[in-house]
Structures are given as structure tokens and as C-alpha cells.
Give the backbone structure.
Amino acid sequence: MVGVVADGQRLHRTQTDFAETFAKLGEATEKGLRELKASELYRGNGPWRGVDGSQRAAIIGDLCAWLCDRKHDIALAAIDLERFRQAPLREDLDDWMTAALHIALQVQRSHQGLKKRKGSTFLVFDEHQRHADRLAELLFDPPHWTDSYYERTKHQERLDQVIDTAFYARSHHVGLVQLADLFAFLFRRYSELHDYGSPPAYDEEVERIDGWVTNISGRLLSQSHRWPKRARDDVSSWYSAAAPPSLVALG
């Protein structure tokens, strides 16, 4: 799961700019583009059928560069599902909820040191009705066992950097949600190739995936907020142990 962390003061400009970029992407397809779906773009399916692979690769590279040029950050959560099944973080949280909580905790930990940012972060997720109420409740009344992840102080409100509800949007309405989906796809494929022995689908795949991931990894929230090398609490230790090694190793 990936979240694009965008400064609210620049968000309108970002959305306008991405809309223009999205319109140009549609010109590469025969029937236009309603929504950017990473798997379709990558594999040449749906509206991308018939578009040359090198052209699609160039588009992915341009979208990675677009994020980096605008200096938006990325929050990354990744969980090995086999490890999760053997020992979940909490019995009452499924894998999706566990990843979503990790995104929130990273944002909390990274933002609490910033001045004049208290309680000003909105979390917007791709529409996921099955989890909507549960996640909203989790953010509204965070469990005490999450305190240690961001070293909550005695008089600090829980998750005080995050607006205490979760917002949802249909992905085709919000460009940054579609962009987050693309980056999640790239990180996942990177892990499949490096951690799970997945064979390359074409000759240049490893080189291309490595290049894209190296590029966007420069915008990841600090590893100390994501997967601390010397975790001192059970929650961050669990997230670090459950993540694919190749992703943990990213700077």
C-alpha cells in the first residue's frame, strides 16, 4: 500500500497539473483514458492494448519523474501475507487494515516534528467500503498499543497529526490515488522479482523496475519512520519483520 504525501498548500496546483498530464496520457490510447490502472498500463491491457511497450515504459518513467520533480513524498507499507497469516499484528485487523494503520503511523511519526502542522493531515483512501467504518473508528479512537510506534508523550493526544477520520474517494476522481496505485504496483513487482523468485516477464524488466523504484525511493518517508533498523517497540518490530527484505533495504 502506498500513500502520496502532498502539501495542502500546493495540492490544487498538483491536481491541476496532474489532470493536464492525465489528458496527455489519454492521447496515447485509441479510445481515451477514464482511469489510470497500473496493471493495465504495465501489461498493455484495456485502453493500452496496442500501445508499444517502450512507449508505456516511457510513460511510467515520466510519472515517476513527475512525482519527484514536485517533491511529494511517499508512505509505503508492505506485508508478506504468509508471515501475516502465521502471526498477525492483531487478530482483529486484516492485512488491508494493518497496512492502512502503518501508513497512518508513518505520517504521524514523520509529521509530529514539523512546526505548525498539528492535526492538519487528511488521509484519503481508494474507496473500500468493507473497511470504511472500521478504519474511521480506528483513527478516531487509536488503540493504546500504537503509542510506542511514534513515542507518544504523556500529554500528547493520540495520532494528533492526523484528522481523526478516514476519507474515501473513487480512484478515477482523484489523480493522486491512481498515482499511488502505480507506485504500489512498482514496489510490489520489485519485491516479487527480488524476494520471491518471480521470473522476469521480458528481458529488460528487472532493469526497468529497479530504475523506477530507485527513482521514487528518493521520495520515501525516512526509513526511521517506516521500518526502523533498531525498533524499540513491538509494533514497529512487527512491521519491520513482516515486510519483504528488498523493500526494507531501500533508502
